[in-house]
Amino acid sequence: MSAALVPAWKAVRRRPTLLAGLILLSLFVVIALLAPLIAPFDPILQNGDLRLQPPSWGHPFGTDNFGRDIFSRVIWGARVDLQIAVIGVLFPFLIGTTVGTIAGYLGGKVDIAFMRFIDIILAFPFLVLMLSIIAILGPGLKSFYIAMALVGWVSYARLIRAQMLVLKTVDYATAALSLGFSGPRIMFRHLLPNAIAGSVVFSMSDCVLVLLSGAAISYLGLGVQPPIAEWGVMVAEGQSFITTAWWITLFPGLSIVTLAFGFSLTGDGLGDLLGVRE
Amino acid sequence: MSEALLSVRDLSVVFSGEDGPRTLIDNLSFDLGKGEILGLVGESGSGKSLTCRSLVRLMPSPKLKITAGTVTLDGRDITQVSEAEIRSVRGRDIGMIFQNPTSHLDPLMRIGDQIAEGIRVHRGVDGKEARAVALDILAQVGFPHPSRQYNGYPHEFSGGMRQRAMIGVALSCDPRILIADEPTTALDVTIQAQILRLLMDLRETRGLSVIMITHDLGIVAQTCDRIAVLRHGRLLEIGDKRDVLGQPQHPYTQNLIASHPSMPARQGTAVAPNDNAASKARPLIEIDDLHVRFPVTGRALFSGGPREFSAVKGVSLQVMPGETVGIVGESGSGKSTLARALLGLTPISEGHVAFDGADIVTERTKALRKLRRETAMVFQDPYNALNPRLTIGAMLAEVLAVQESVPKEKIPERIGELLDLVGLEREFADRKPLSMSGGQCQRAGIARALAVNPKLIVADECVAALDVTIQAQIVDLFRDLKKRLNLTLLFIAHDLAIVRSLCERVVVMYHGEIVEEGATDKVFAAPREAYTRALIDAIPDIDPDKPLLSPKGGEEFDEETPGLVTGEAT
Q1: Chain A within 8 Å of B453 (Cβ-Cβ)?
Q2: Which residues from A are below 8 Å from B451, CB to CB?
Q3: Fewest Cβ atoms nearer than 10 Å: which of A114, B108, B278, B394?
């Protein structure tokens, strides 16, 4: 295993963007894992005496209108937000990649059917569709993930399909066909690995978008339920105090931006590494 | 030649990479006289293109630097002049044309305007006058209707016409020197002959000096006055073409000349026709009145009803076991479609194809099973033909595992044998295609084809993308394998010289039909059809005294792909 990792590490070291992105992301992962140890206060503990305190040594990020320590809430929020970003992208990625591969490779009626179905999904405004699905399933993160998987796969399917349409005419695909390889083998073993780079890069920027939709859904009261600490919810809650207590929105907002930055640096670096731009 | 127009002395170009500097061009010196055509010959990586780019300081990478030497034009050293001055040298003094006109013409600009642009920039004339000059140039480079074709976009023209347009763009600045970088490599032979003739005519009428970069010694022999042979950035030999081709001094040049497929020495080694095979055995391939049609997409909405394009029209052909048949024709002649239909990779519209007695149309399942286990293909572009993510060993192992022809534990051994067969070191099992040369990849591709123990190998332009010495090696490999494994070989090529040296029988295709077929010797010695004769005459022979083309030959055959442009209904 370590022998395989050495070239990977070499490739990463030569790309400062990728390295910076990965460091940033792992920082968030560490924070999320160690949240119980680092956070100085209970993130949901309310304290009427400490309401709307500005940042100080005791509460570096200040407190909110319930007297909760924002620093602790931001740290605990990393758990929820990382989960949203990863799960919210993983399932759309898997579904979309599979559908796109099959539609692009088989072409013809299968392709037309899938593409028209995708058109139908795209015809609805994204949030409206998400909201209706969550409304049917009932509010909560699980519904959010299901809704995301049902709606978010379309971009991946289209990306992969476009790549497959090009790749299936490449000579090594014809060679595989003429050697009697089965359809699934050609699709998933030979073509998909060569088609997937663009989607991997896109999934990184998609993490950012999912993070923001998660925040939007939570803001509407359909995602993360209070009092759980989640950055999007915290931004939303601080909105009414923005002129008097800016710290409530600023620090979770900064966290979202920094995490997003980490994802997009990683995405850029991966794109370079996988040769997407060549 | 009188005194030199351009004089290169001790030119060196160094690439400073991560592993330290590498000298790519080493102490190169040559002169170019007025009205002279100098051929720069060498294989890929010899530095011939880089040399010419260095002359006008158009380095393909900022890591490349001219470290020493002078390039003297009009008494000044253009390696030292300012950026503004070199810009006026580019185009006005030295024009360039490239191998692929499609990527060097602006697709969104009318062809005439692209020529007029250079005239306006370099000669400082207004739009109307520039247009008049551009029309004149269009006529000079052989556009039959300049005023109408002025308004055409590059995609509306065929490859040959695009190359003419690119020459027109280069001429628009009225240069004294034209650098032609493999100007005809992407073109069919008859078109190539026309373009070469055009360049020679331009030399006559304009007194143009030309540096012709090419890997094809035939082209050099036909067009150039002097030849410079390059290898690894060094000039091995330079001199009058008759001297260099007649008495090559350097062993590499001798090898290069020996590798040229039109040499009589090579013809002698062609496989002797196999007379006895024809009578007794059953044909391995039987093609009867085959039609392949494709729907023309993107036009159906307004043109009323689906339109079709016929790629293969009523072809009948029989191939005996052990035979080597060459299928020749220009691009769009349907030769690749024929091969794909034969292997069951393209649906057949009409007619019958049988492989070893199994009909692909009526007994599809049975025939396909047979085809997949007993035939294999070798492709043109060696890099595209191999999955870039698999090592050669993994690729071969997969074929062997899927075909189940070898027990699992014997697979590594068989991979070694296959690599031996195609002349690759066994270490190549662990390499990926991108770390290998084109010739090595092509050998790996052939190893993959052999992994199925095929009766039939279809090679589709499998040497077209390779250097001549490598081409010769691959052709030798095929000849050797054929003998050892009793293969039937269907060799598709546009290069008639290679077909002549390898195949016993040749089939000439034109616009989806077979126009001539017969024993290679006979067809080449006495072609019955005018088209075949035009194809053969268009091959630039390495003997400078065999002139290229009877004048105007080959032009009676239009170079457009039929149907593709007009959507020919069937």
Answers
A1: no
A2: 179
A3: B108
Question: What residues form DSSP beta bridges with B492?
Answer: B327, B460
Q: Number of C-alpha atoms within 13 angstroms, CB side, residue B373?
A: 13
Measured over the CA atoms of residue A118, residue A124, residue A126 and residue A132, the dihedral's sign is negative
**Residue A155 to chain B, least CA–CA distance (Å):** 24
Please list the residues that pair with B227 across neighbouring strands.
Answer: B39, B239
Specify which residues B309 forms β-bridges with.
B294
Residue B367, chain A, CB below 8 Å: the answer is no
Residue of chain A with shortest Cα separation from B384: A171
Q: DSSP character for B136?
A: H
Are B110 and B152 a contacting pair, CB within 8 Å? yes
Q: A171: which chain B residues are within 8 Å (Cβ-Cβ)?
A: 379-381, 384-385
Query: Rounded distance, CA B190 to CA B195, Å?
Result: 9
Q: Which residues pair with B70 in a beta bridge?
A: B9
Got the DSSP string for B169-193?
Answer: HHHTT--SEEEEESTTTTS-HHHHH
Question: A6: exposed, middle or buried (C-beta count within 10 Å: 0-12, 13-18, 19+)?
Answer: exposed
Spatial contact of A85 and A141, defined as CB atoms under 8 Å apart: no
Residues of A in contact with B462 (CB under 8 A): none
The token pair at B296 is 């023309």
Contacts B297 to A, Cβ<8 Å: none
- Helix B392-403 with B438-450: angle, nearest 10 deg: 10
Beta strands in B298-445 (DSSP E): 307-319, 324-328, 350-355, 358-359, 375-378
Beta bridge pairs of residue B65: B14
Q: For B172-227, write each residue's pLDDT tens digit.
A: 888 899 999 888 877 788 888 888 888 888 888 888 999 999 888 888 888 899 99
B387 to A172: CB separation less than 8 angstroms, yes or no: yes
A 10 A CB-CB count for A240 gives 12
Tens-binned pLDDT, residue by residue, of chain B (570 aa): 457 889 999 999 988 877 788 888 888 899 998 889 999 988 877 888 888 888 888 887 888 888 888 899 888 888 888 888 888 888 788 888 887 777 788 888 898 999 898 888 877 788 888 899 899 889 888 888 888 889 988 888 888 888 888 888 888 888 899 999 888 877 788 888 888 888 888 888 888 999 999 888 888 888 899 999 998 888 999 999 888 888 888 998 888 888 877 654 444 444 444 444 445 568 899 999 999 988 766 544 555 555 678 889 989 999 999 899 999 888 778 888 899 899 988 889 989 899 988 898 888 888 888 898 899 999 988 888 999 888 999 999 999 998 888 888 899 999 999 999 898 999 999 998 888 888 899 999 999 999 988 999 999 888 887 888 888 888 989 999 888 888 999 999 887 888 888 899 999 998 889 999 999 888 888 888 888 888 888 878 777 776 665 444 444 444 443 333 333 333
Q: Which residue ranges form the domains of chain B, and what is each CATH number? A: 29-60+80-93+177-260+540-570 (3.40.50.300), 102-174 (no CATH), 279-537 (3.40.50.300)
> Is A178 in contact with B343 (Cβ distance < 8 A)?
yes
Report CB contact under 8 Å: B402, A193. no
Instruction: Give pLDDT, residue A46.
Output: 82
> Where do the DSSP E strands lie in B434-487?
456-460
Q: What's the start-to-end Cα distance of chain A, in Å?
A: 29
Alpha-carbon gap, residue B105 to B180, rounded angstroms: 15
Amino acid at B233: G
Cβ neighbours of A177 in B, within 8 Å: 345
Asked if A18 and A273 touch (Cβ cutoff 8 Å), the reply is yes
Whose CA is closest to B303, among B540, B567, B4?
B567
User: Helix, strand, or coil here: B354?
Assistant: strand
Report the CATH fold assignment for A80-273.
MetI-like fold (1.10.3720)
